Amino acid sequence: MIMKVQHECLFLLTCCMILMFDSIVGDECRRPMGLQSGAVRDAQLSARCIATSPLYAWAFQARLNNASSEATSGAWVACDANRTGLFLQVDFLKVRNVSGLMTQGQNGMYTASYQLVYSMDGQRWSMYQDEDATTKVFDGNTDDVGTVTQYFDQGPITARYIRILPLTYGGGNFALRLEILGCAWCDADSPCIAPAVCEDLVDDYECHCTPDCMQGKNCQLDYCGTGTMPSSEYQPSSTEIMTTAAKSCASGLQPWERALIVIFTICPLAALAVVLTFLTQRYLRLQYQMTTVYGRPVSPQPSIISYDVSKVIKSGYLQSYDVSRSRANQA
Ligand SMILES: *[C@@H]1O[C@H](CO)[C@@H](O)[C@H](O)[C@H]1NC(C)=O
Ligand SMILES: *[C@@H]1O[C@H](CO)[C@@H](O)[C@H](O)[C@H]1NC(C)=O
Ligand SMILES: *[C@@H]1O[C@H](CO)[C@@H](O)[C@H](O)[C@H]1NC(C)=O
To answer: Which sequence ranges form a coiled-coil region, renumbered to this chain (predicted)?
Structure first.
């Protein structure tokens, strides 16, 4: 029983720490999705259409912080800024949650504004819209070096394909380097414990445990070599609990679990704040009462700092009477 309680405390503590860390870091599904890192492969980037002189400005160069040189344009540049139907496309190969994007220009050129369409299947496209259902026009860059980050006001969109439709440009043509921000269940920090295989579902994930004797949502329970399959008496180790907590926190808690964590972390903090406020007020009142007895200032001032707060709590307000009496005793 005590073990169990310990485990649960451990779980809650881990969750709290993770949630606090999450809120500090602000990881609301805003991780770079791999354009800069190269996790998104060259073949996943495409465009209509590219500049071919002075250099080929391939779509796959449209990666945040890519560098230009004599041999490479280091960005996607449109074939002709006046051509209609221009786009730069990213295919994530899997459905992703996308929450924003970062853009840069290159070589004196930049994309000053753009629209965004997205799709699950590459056939039917949705235009990203403002709250009032008008097509959103994103502010892009104002020079060829700065990075402009745009988050989607209405939270992440779920899509496999993202297309940037450039609208206005500076420096003679559209140039674009890009990072997409978002999240997926099975990205770099997969919730499944290796060597389980993680599969992204639209709003969940599934771990295919290998070998089969690993079990649990994240394949966190290791029965391999024990010769026994899970029984209700099975007590996972603290490390397992921590890992499971970390993984399940990271992969999203049930609303009631969040509520519990709020109750167990925010509420004690709030209670502490209330108690502190209360104590401070009492202490201030005490100070006030000790410096004035029956409304008249006491002279010389008694040394208030020497009163410790615990006495004050026990005895409630120190009565003006007490003060004057103790002063009388001293005299
Ligand atoms: C620019 O992008 C190309 C194409 O993906 C890549 O090979 C190259 O390493 C990138 N350069 C930098 C500086 O990121
Ligand atoms: C695009 O059109 C504008 C105005 O019609 C023109 O001034 C500009 O030279 C054209 N740009 C290109 C690259 O053809
Ligand atoms: C992706 O979006 C869906 C729908 O908004 C949401 O239910 C799910 O939790 C999101 N997934 C991640 C990994 O944030």
So the answer is: none
CA of 34 to the centre of ligand 1 (A): 12
Reported as a single tens digit per residue, the pLDDT across 277-314 is 888 877 777 666 666 666 676 666 655 544 555 555 55
Q: 2-187 adopts what CATH topology?
A: Jelly Rolls (2.60.120)
pTM above 0.70? no
Whether 2-187 and 190-251 share one fold: the answer is: no
Ligand 2 within 6 A of 82 CB?
A: yes
* Long-range pairs for 145-148: beta carbons < 8 A, 24 or more residues apart: 145/104, 145/105, 146/104, 146/105, 147/64, 147/102, 147/103, 147/104, 148/102, 148/103, 148/104
The domain spans of the chain are 2-187, 190-251, 260-317
- Ligand 1 close to Cβ of residue 43 (< 6 A): no
Residue 250, exposed/middle/buried by CB under 10 A (0-12, 13-18, 19+)? Answer: middle
Ligand 2: residue whose CA is nearest its atom 7: 82
pLDDT digits (tens, 9 = 90+) for 116-168: 999 999 999 999 999 899 999 999 999 999 999 999 998 899 999 999 999 99
Question: 190-251 maps to which CATH number?
Answer: 2.10.25.10
Ligand 3 pocket test: which of 160, 192, 203 has the largest number of ligand atoms within 8 Å of its C-beta? 203
Query: Is residue 9 over pLDDT 50?
Result: no
Report the distance separating Cα 140 and Cα 148, nearest Å.
Answer: 6
81 close to ligand 2 (CB < 6 Angstrom): yes
The ligand whose atoms approach the alpha carbon of 86 most closely is 2
